[in-house]
Design a protein that fits this description.
- The protein has 655 residues and is mainly alpha-helical.
- The protein has helices at 2-16, 28-57, 67-80, 98-108, 114-141, 145-157, 159-165, 171-186, 190-203, 208-225, 236-261, 267-275, 283-292, 300-319, 327-343, 358-380, 383-433, 446-452, 476-486, 534-546, 553-566, 571-583, 587-600, 605-617, 621-634, 639-654; strands at 439-442, 455-458, 491-495, 501-502, 508-510, 519-523, 530-531.
- It is elongated and about 100 Å long.
Length: 655
């Protein structure tokens, strides 16, 4: 009796459920129009960033230095037939994405314009990603194709998808392959699944997170299919086909890396794992800033709501042993975040390493809003209210997404200028002011290698794998100096925040009037060039944050004394000590530390001017004249110093 009543209640409940479907299945002509519209929109939105940046800067550029790493490998592969970083002399597995590099190399046979080549490839793969994302969304939403169109619109206007499409990186290609692979997998297309899955690893090593998600999803399907006969599986023949094709593709990949660098994965991957290891970066800061804050900013805040609803639905379905189509997407999202959190808590500039989860977050989010709409329908008993909410949510995401897109357009131009003013300008100076046989030591090997056309020693280990295991050694700078000497390095090109050279005047610096990341070029003299250790350089950056703050002098001096105990040959540390003593009105120690800084670095302009000014204030005009004369000899354009020098010179002459 109770059982019959329960069945009757269930039947009545089913009758009361409101059907909220919005059926729309485009015919062949309509589908063609949709595909053309997606392609056109992706091209227009991406190209608009390029035109805007070129108009603002007066040149084309990239917002990252990394694209020129791919381009350098590709250029040498096209010209010398060698996967090398300098002509055919530095063969190494230094490209994280060898297949992208190979495509670039083929492109160099058509055009020598590295910018056009990179832009075209990035946008083409953005178009492919948009079309396949629509196909995947259409599969997931079935007869309700309107939601597939809305999903794709959100994807096309996404600020980071457009940003990265114009960045000269392999990211849009990687995203396309992920989407194409899961589409083929969902459609149970064995050969296509195997090919796309294999190419994913050729594009980025962290694609293993996606491959793992596919395997996990399929195993879950196999388990559920024992009771749910509606779940379609691959046949044994198809599974063998997938295994054979996939194995063949990755064996070639592993073999190439092994031959080039003695490791089955690219040495860039190992270098970044070492440099950004969890021991040196905060996992909690990564989760808060580079994951949560990143994926809740702007339009993503609305997307996140739908994503969390869908995630809760997945948990509920999993407990009930019911297959949820979002399983693979959410597992991949969690797996990619976990891998970076655990091994390398760093999403890189602009969150580039986590961008591949964006399309899947959009798709999952829209299904989450669809589930919310069903709850609304059951409460209000209204199809119109439910679908109104659903469409309003999608339109709101598109609206705020467009705002974010236009805001990011300006950021793209600024970031291109930022990279150009440092890496590109320095590279061209090196090309024009050094000999072809000179070797350059640097940590930013992209634009500097490509435009300088000089052999590079990479102190960050991306293309010089011998240094990778030493990156975090306490005495790495000394090891690096010996390596640079052994490699016959002639010049150094360093950003101050990475490696700071003291006691030596840079031959070139760009940009000159910047407080952040100035690229400096030095002549390298093994016996005299003094490079600060990372610990000392970090301490100097730390001191600089509060050096002029009232009441912080004692704390600043404590840090400075620790730095001097680690490195007593740093003129910059003595100069900072002088500034602190000066703010505390300790004239004796102010003078003493400035003199020590100048002893170590006779051409230290800031210290010379400060000491000249100090002696002038003390009415010691003879000493003031001595140091100001040395200063204006080094910087004759400083009119204020020239006036001071004239003043003290007149005073000494009068006497």
């Amino acid at each position: 009796m109770a059982k019959n009543k329960k069945a009757e209640n269930k039947k009545n409940s089913a009758k009361e459920q409101v059907n909220i479907e919005i059926p729309f299945e485009p015919n062949k002509n309509q589908s063609l129009i949709i595909y053309i519209s997606i392609a056109a929109a992706a091209i227009v939105f991406a190209v608009l960033y390029l035109f805007s940046a070129n108009a603002a800067n007066g040149y084309n550029g990239f917002p990252l230095d990394d694209p020129w790493i791919h381009l350098t490998f590709a250029k040498n592969l096209a010209e010398y037939g060698s996967f090398s970083y300098f002509k055919n002399e530095m063969s190494t597995a230094g490209s994280t994405s060898p297949i992208y590099t190979m495509i670039l190399a083929a492109g160099f046979l058509i055009t020598k314009n590295e910018m056009v080549l990179s832009y075209v490839l990035g946008i083409i793969f953005f178009v492919f990603a948009g079309i396949w994302f629509y196909r995947l969304s259409s599969f997931e939403f079935g007869k309700e194709n309107i939601f597939a169109i809305l999903c794709t619109a959100i994807f096309i206007v996404d600020k980071w998808m457009n940003f990265i499409a114009d960045s000269g990186m392999e990211t849009t290609m990687f995203i396309f392959l992920l989407i194409a692979a899961v589409y083929a997998y969902k459609k149970r297309q064995a050969a296509a699944t195997a090919v796309f899955a294999g190419l994913i690893l050729w594009t980025r090593p962290d694609g293993t997170a996606f491959l793992g998600a596919l395997v996990f999803d399929y195993l879950w399907c196999v388990y559920l299919a024992k009771k749910d006969k509606s779940i379609k599986l691959f046949s044994k023949t198809e599974l063998f086909k997938i295994a054979g094709i996939f194995a063949g593709i990755i064996i070639i990949y592993f073999g190439m890396n092994l031959k080039l660098s003695g490791s089955i994965l690219p040495n860039t991957f190992n270098a970044k794992l070492t440099y950004y290891a969890p021991e040196f970066r905060s996992r909690s800061v990564f989760l808060k800033g580079e994951v949560w804050d990143y994926f809740t900013a702007g339009a993503y805040g609305i997307v996140m709501f739908g994503f969390l609803v869908a995630a809760l639905k997945l948990i509920f379905d999993t407990i009930k042993r019911k297959y949820n189509p979002n399983f693979v997407y959410i597992v991949f999202t969690a797996a990619l975040v976990f891998i970076y959190w655990y091994r390398m808590p760093y999403a890189h500039r602009f969150g580039r390493y986590l961008m591949p989860i964006i399309p899947f977050m959009i798709l999952v989010s829209m299904t989450g809003f669809r589930e919310t709409a069903k709850l609304i329908a059951s409460y209000f008993k209204s199809k119109q209210v439910a679908n109104g909410f659903n469409i309003l949510a999608a339109v709101a995401i598109i609206f705020f997404g467009l705002q974010n897109y236009f805001d990011n357009k300006k950021s793209y131009a600024e970031e291109c200028r930022y990279i150009n003013d440092r890496q590109v300008v320095a590279a061209k100076w090196i090309r024009d002011n050094t000999k072809e046989t000179d070797i350059i030591g640097t940590h930013d090997v992209g634009a500097i290698a490509f435009y300088s056309q000089r052999k590079i020693v990479d102190v960050a280990g991306l293309v010089t794998p011998e240094l990778i295991n030493k990156l975090h050694d306490e005495n790495y700078v000394e090891y690096m100096r010996e390596y640079l000497k052994k490699s016959n390095v002639s010049y150094l090109a360093f950003l101050r925040e990475w490696y700071r050279v003291v006691n030596q005047t840079p031959l070139f610096m760009s940009p000159e009037n910047s407080a952040q990341e100035v690229m400096e070029v030095f002549k390298f003299s093994p016996d005299s060039t003094h490079i600060l250790s990372k610990r000392v350089n970090s301490g100097i950056e730390y001191v600089g944050q509060f050096i002029n703050q009232r009441g912080m002098q004692n704390q600043a001096l404590n840090v400075i004394n620790q730095l001097l105990s680690m490195d007593e040959k740093s003129s910059l540390t003595y100069y900072l000590a002088a500034i602190v003593y000066g703010s505390a009105n300790d004239a004796k120690n102010y003078e003493k530390n400035l003199l020590k800084a100048i002893e170590l670095y006779p051409d230290f302009k800031d210290a010379l001017f400060a000491l000249g000014n100090f002696y002038k204030a003390q009415n010691n005009n003879a000493e003031a004249k001595k140091y100001l004369t040395r200063y204006v000899t080094l910087k004759p354009s400083d009119t204020k110093a020239l006036e001071m020098l004239k003043s003290v010179s007149d005073s000494t002459t009068a006497k």
